[in-house]
Design a protein that fits this description.
It is a single chain. The protein is 62% helix and 2% strand. The protein is built from 20 helices and 6 strands. The chain has a two-stranded antiparallel sheet. It has a two-stranded antiparallel sheet with strand order 3-6. A two-stranded antiparallel ribbon has the order 4-5. GO terms for molecular function: oligopeptide transmembrane transporter activity. InterPro entries: Oligpept_transpt, OPT.
Length: 537
Amino acid sequence: MFTITNRMNIITIVKAFYHRQLNPVAALLLTHTTQMLGYGWAGIFRKYLVDSPYMWWPANLVQVSLFRALHEVEIRPKGGLTRLQFFIMVLVSSFSYYIIPNYLFPSITALSFVCWVWKDSVTAQQIGSGLHGLGLGSFALDWSTVAGFLGSPLATPGFAIVNMLVGFVLVVYVALPVAYWTDLYGARKFPIISSHVFDANGKAYNISEILIESTFEFNRAGYDGYSKVNLSVFFVLAYGLSFAGLAATVSHVALFHGRTIWQQTKASFQDKFGDVHTRLMRKNYEPVPQWWFYALLILVIGLSLFACEGFGRQLQLPYWGVILAMVLAFVFTLPVGVITATTNQQAGLNVISEMIIGYMYPGKPLANVAFKTYGTISMSQAITFLSDFKLGHYMKIPPKSMFLVQLVGTVITSLVCFSTAWWLLTTIENICDPSKLPEGSPWTCPGDDVFYNASIIWGVVGPLRMRFRGWWARHNYILSGGLDAGVAFMATLCYFTLQFNGIGGPRWWGLAVDDHCPLAKCPTAAGVRVEGCPVFH
């Protein structure tokens, strides 16, 4: 499993949002080094997060169940299906169905009936919109939407799902409406939910007003004469909760896992810690020498410093910023890894990393996102590598083979993804600019848009399982794997056979990747004028 999306964010926002030139070698080094740093952190913490029997990595159980279904000989139960037959049935069904939300009827990803009934009511659409509002009465008939944000719910422990549900209700259905409709800090001048930044008049923030074109640095005089940066109340809550969640991660791990980690640290020196999987691995295979990780870490640190300090300092991040980002990733890899390995939910360092470098090195948007990339992404990649090591642990794959396959796969994946992204950014006209793209275009870059707005903010300015327990234990993870595989195969097929060749879906109302709640994005404060929105008095 290799995750590369966030490594491309910085390249995308430089070229498509800020419209700046970037040396391709520097960009390639950035892509490779942010991933390779994760190997170093993974090597340091693998005895805690891989060898420990308490770190079970729920998401890996999907892969384990799938591999067992594919390779183990199984007798078909009377009146039932083998796990392989069940997987194939789910795969074919998911594959066949996904052409509907992916190509024929994209609007099925967010069906918001409230908006269709109250077409002229801003408040009703703010309440009912699934993409830009509270989502009451809105739902999706698309597995990629269900699993796209927090991962497969079938692979997440029940206690974690309940925890997230309670938190979601308290934030989205209690705190957010109260803050917005009481006009807290002028919240009604802006959309109720938006990841964009706005000026004092409720319009999209014009970044060119506060940047010096020649040096690409913060223009204080321009800022004072223009406007402060304003956020939607939801974006403010999201940032605040991000800080709270990260602090909760550290305190939770210290209180509930601190003793285990300390005992494991002592036991690891005596070679006494581990479960049956660890004992089998040590008995049959040679472990990966620790110096492999250290050597790779030292090499990548050197390349990271070269990428930022060389090439005319295009990335703006000085050497001490690179080192500080690495320290941040090192400190948080263990606590975040413990949470991920036990709940299948991963806390991110994106907000705290943006804030730290924003205060220490203000007015440098590219330095901010580079720092964020080296801190956040290297830790995230370490978690991914550790998860893969645990999968190899479960499947009894030789550790050295696992290491080498991961390393080669990471290099190839980074190179291919970088080349593809660079090609798209230089060949597709108006990429990432929805206002200039044709309707239904897939090149709107929503994730990169959030990344870009964050760089402005911080960089420029500052019970089912119990009822069917037998079926669940046998088929749950295979169901998740089959749904994911079907979606992936159909998405790939549609892209290369249709979308890549400019063959769009049928022109009709359901083609838009939207919930058709245009007024949900409107402000409701008196006198604020935004194109396409009614003016309140």
